[in-house]
């Protein structure tokens, strides 16, 4: 574990993303907390423009980097404060944009957005799904209407616009340089639960089942962080290969879905990861019950792995497809999850003469002129 004091500007510096894990509660600060927070910051700025504002500890854990080099961190503790701070900066950015667009973009690049990244990776903080749409609207500056903005950002903007004697540019500069945090970075695979509880025991007593969630997380933090980030252009979840014993049509559909996803990742520019045994909402189903049905003589991971490899080899239209993916087993709460990490292929990968690519969090078939153009551009 490494701890250091730093400014908020330094905490958000570089191409990175903080991911709020799925087992945490959604953002829940309301008007009273926003008002107290904003008034305290304004009073300090007016009284002593050089005074630092200490915002407590932000506990993070590095979990993975994308193929483009963006570093992802699990946000173990500090999501309420960090989301609030970014909402305030987003409100300031929107007010400043009306007078100085270049200054506004500087604020956005420093604290909110990863340039040249698309989809969810475009944002430096990835909250829980419940908060994402409005939060992304405000961070991206795509809306000025209060009804489609993140509530905290809309509140801060309204309050700041009623401060006629406030120098908005000076206030934004003050926040950039004087917001101070203690950045606590855990080691990979370190159990964050004791640290989390020591920082939160006074504010929130432990709830039934909460410890169980952290035990699950501690067993494979990298996988849980990946799941927490949700489906995207480079990540997809599948419940399994098989359906109910009597539903052969649904089983075939699920197998086709797995094969199509792997092919689409191979046809993409950046590859991706498929997790089998995970529901769409990120909860763990596991694949253990499929073992006996796939191979009664070898009802375990080895039998499942052999069946999956044979299926992919038979269906993917490229020689030696295993060159472009790696299949691994993970255990979460005594349930097995199958992870397939896929690299971009060096030639088009067809399934029954059809070519699939990733579009958002879906695998779509390319047709007609779009197909020709994609193949020509992808494999020049």
Descriptive notes:
This protein has 380 residues and is of the alpha/beta class. Helices cover 42% and strands 20% of the residues. The protein has a six-stranded mixed sheet. Strands 7-8-10-9 form a four-stranded mixed sheet, with helices on both faces. Helix 3 (79-97) packs antiparallel against helix 4 (101-111), helix 3 runs antiparallel to helix 7 (168-178) and helix 9 packs across helix 10 (221-228). The longest helix is centred in the last third of the chain and has 20 residues, at 248-267. The mean pLDDT is 87.
Short structural summary:
By secondary structure, the protein is an alpha/beta fold.
Provide tags for this entry:
elongated; Methyltransferase, Cobalt-precorrin-4 Transmethylase, Domain 2; 42% helix
| Beta-strand percent range | 15-25%
Strand order of the largest sheet: 1-6-3-4-2-5
Compute the average pLDDT.
Answer: 87
How many individual β-strands? 13
**Structure classification:** alpha/beta
- Helix coverage percent: 40-55%
**CA-to-CA gap between the ends?**
46 Å
The biggest sheet amounts to:
6 strands, mixed
Described by the principal axes of the CA atoms, the overall outline is: elongated
Spans of at least 5 consecutive residues whose pLDDT stays below 50 are none
* Rg on CA atoms, Å: 23 Å
| Run of helices and strands | EHEHEEHHEHHHEHHHEHEHHEEEEEH
**Count of DSSP-assigned helices:** 14
Which quaternary structure do these chains form?
A: single chain
Number of domains: 2
């Amino acid at each position: 574990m490494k701890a250091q004091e730093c400014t908020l500007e330094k905490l958000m510096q570089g191409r990175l993303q903080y991911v709020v894990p799925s087992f945490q509660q959604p953002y829940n600060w309301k008007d009273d907390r926003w008002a107290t927070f904003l008034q305290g910051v304004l009073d300090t700025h007016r009284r002593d423009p050089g005074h630092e504002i200490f915002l407590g500890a932000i506990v993070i854990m590095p979990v993975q980097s994308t193929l483009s080099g963006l570093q992802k961190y699990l946000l173990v503790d500090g999501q309420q404060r960090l989301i609030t701070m970014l909402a305030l900066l987003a409100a300031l950015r929107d007010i400043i944009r009306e007078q100085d667009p270049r200054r506004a973009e500087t604020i956005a690049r420093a604290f909110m957005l990863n340039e040249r990244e698309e989809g969810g990776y475009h944002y430096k903080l990835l909250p829980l799904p419940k908060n994402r749409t409005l939060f992304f609207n405000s961070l991206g500056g795509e809306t000025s209407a209060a009804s489609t903005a993140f509530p905290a950002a809309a509140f801060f903007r309204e309050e700041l616009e009623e401060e006629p004697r406030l120098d908005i540019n000076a206030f934004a500069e003050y926040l950039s340089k004087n917001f101070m945090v203690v950045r606590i970075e855990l080691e990979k695979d370190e159990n964050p639960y004791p640290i989390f509880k020591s920082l939160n025991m006074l504010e929130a007593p432990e709830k039934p089942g909460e410890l169980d969630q952290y035990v699950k997380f501690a067993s494979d933090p990298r996988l849980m962080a990946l799941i927490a980030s949700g489906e995207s252009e480079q990540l997809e979840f599948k419940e399994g290969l098989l359906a109910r014993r009597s539903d052969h049509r649904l089983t075939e559909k699920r197998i086709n879905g797995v094969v199509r996803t792997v092919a689409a990742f191979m046809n993409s520019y950046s590859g991706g990861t498929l997790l089998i045994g995970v529901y769409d909402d990120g909860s763990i189903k596991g694949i253990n019950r499929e073992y006996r049905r796939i191979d009664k003589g070898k009802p375990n991971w080895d039998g499942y792995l052999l069946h999956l490899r044979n299926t992919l080899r038979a269906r993917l239209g490229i020689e030696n497809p295993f060159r472009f993916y790696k299949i691994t087993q993970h255990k979460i709460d005594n349930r097995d999850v199958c992870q397939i990490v896929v690299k971009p292929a060096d030639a088009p990968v067809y399934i029954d003469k059809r070519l699939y690519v990733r579009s958002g969090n879906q695998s779509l078939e390319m047709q007609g002129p779009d197909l020709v153009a994609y193949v020509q551009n992808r494999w020049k």
